[in-house]
C-alpha cells in the first residue's frame, strides 16, 4: 500500500461494481478515504465498503440514481459532510443502452443523457463547493467514443464523446485553482457487464493491439495516477487505456 493519497477523500460514482469498484479500491490502497454511489445493489456496495475498511480507510456507500440530479448533488455534499472534505471526484456511473437509431426512443435518449452527461456536469458543479486548490475531477469515458466498431452504439458513443467537451472546458475554467480535470477512456474491460469470456469477447479482443481485455485494476491504475500529486501538470487530457483499440 502506498501513501500517495493520504488525508485525501474521494467520491467514485457507480463504485459498487466493475471499473468503479476497482477505482474505489485502488484509491483506498493509495491512502484515500472513499465514498461510492450505487443505484440498486446495496449488498455489493457494502462489500466494497468492507474491502476499503479492511485497508484501514474510511468508506461510505450512498444510494443515488445518476438520472436524478438532486440525488447526484446530494451524494457530493454528503461525502464532504460525513468524511470531512472532498479532494477527488471520479465520474464513473453510466448506462449502456444499445440499439439502432430507429429502435431507441425518447426515454432511452433521456436516460442516457441524464446519467452519462448531465450527472457528471452536476457532480462537478457540486464538487466545486468543496474542492480545494489541487483538487481532481476525473471522468470515465469509453473507447466507443473514439471508435464505434459495431452498429447500434450511436447513442452511447454520443454521450461519452460529450465528456471530452466537459473535460476540456472545465480544465480551462479550473486551471487557475490548480484543479485538474481529465478523461480516461477504457477499452474492453472484464466486468460482469462485459465479461472477457462472453459471446462476443473474441471479436472484441481482436480489435485491440494486445489481443485481450483489460482488468478493472488496469483502468484504476491510470485514475490513481491522475488523482495523485505527481499528475498536477496533466489537465484537459483524454487518456485511452484501451490496449491499442483506438490505435
UniProtKB/TrEMBL annotation:
Record's keyword terms, sorted: Oxidoreductase
Superkingdom of source: Bacteria
Keyword Oxidoreductase recorded: yes
Pfam families: adh_short_C2
Family membership: Belongs to the short-chain dehydrogenases/reductases (SDR) family.
PANTHER family: OXIDOREDUCTASE, SHORT-CHAIN DEHYDROGENASE/REDUCTASE FAMILY (AFU_ORTHOLOGUE AFUA_5G02870), SHORT-CHAIN DEHYDROGENASE_REDUCTASE FAMILY PROTEIN
Identification of the protein by name: 3-oxoacyl-[acyl-carrier protein] reductase
Lineage, opening ranks: Bacteria, Bacillati, Actinomycetota, Actinomycetes, Micromonosporales
Amino acid at each position: 500500500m502506498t501513501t500517495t493519497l493520504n488525508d485525501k477523500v474521494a467520491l467514485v460514482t457507480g463504485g459498487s461494481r466493475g471499473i468503479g469498484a476497482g477505482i474505489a479500491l485502488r484509491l483506498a490502497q493509495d491512502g484515500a478515504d472513499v465514498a461510492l454511489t450505487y443505484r440498486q445493489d446495496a449488498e455489493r456496495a457494502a462489500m466494497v465498503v468492507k474491502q476499503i475498511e479492511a485497508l484501514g480507510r474510511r468508506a461510505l456507500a450512498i444510494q443515488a440514481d445518476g438520472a436524478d440530479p438532486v440525488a447526484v448533488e446530494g451524494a457530493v455534499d454528503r461525502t464532504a459532510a460525513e468524511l470531512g472534505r472532498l479532494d477527488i471526484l471520479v465520474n464513473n456511473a453510466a448506462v449502456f443502452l444499445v440499439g439502432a437509431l430507429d429502435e431507441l426512443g425518447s426515454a432511452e435518449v433521456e436516460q442516457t443523457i441524464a446519467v452519462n452527461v448531465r450527472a457528471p456536469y452536476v457532480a462537478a458543479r457540486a464538487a466545486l463547493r468543496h474542492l480545494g486548490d489541487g483538487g481532481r475531477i476525473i471522468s470515465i469515458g469509453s473507447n466507443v467514443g473514439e471508435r464505434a466498431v459495431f452498429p447500434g452504439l450511436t447513442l452511447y458513443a454520443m454521450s461519452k464523446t460529450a465528456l471530452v467537451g466537459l473535460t476540456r472546458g472545465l480544465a480551462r475554467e479550473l486551471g487557475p485553482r490548480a484543479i485538474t480535470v481529465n478523461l480516461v477512456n477504457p477499452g474492453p474491460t472484464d466486468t460482469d457487464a462485459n465479461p472477457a469470456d462472453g459471446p462476443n469477447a473474441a471479436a472484441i479482443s481482436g480489435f485491440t493491439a494486445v489481443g485481450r481485455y483489460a482488468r478493472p485494476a488496469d483502468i484504476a491504475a491510470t485514475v490513481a495516477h491522475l488523482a495523485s500529486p505527481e499528475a498536477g501538470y496533466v489537465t484537459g487530457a483524454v487518456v485511452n487505456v484501451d490496449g491499442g483499440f483506438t490505435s
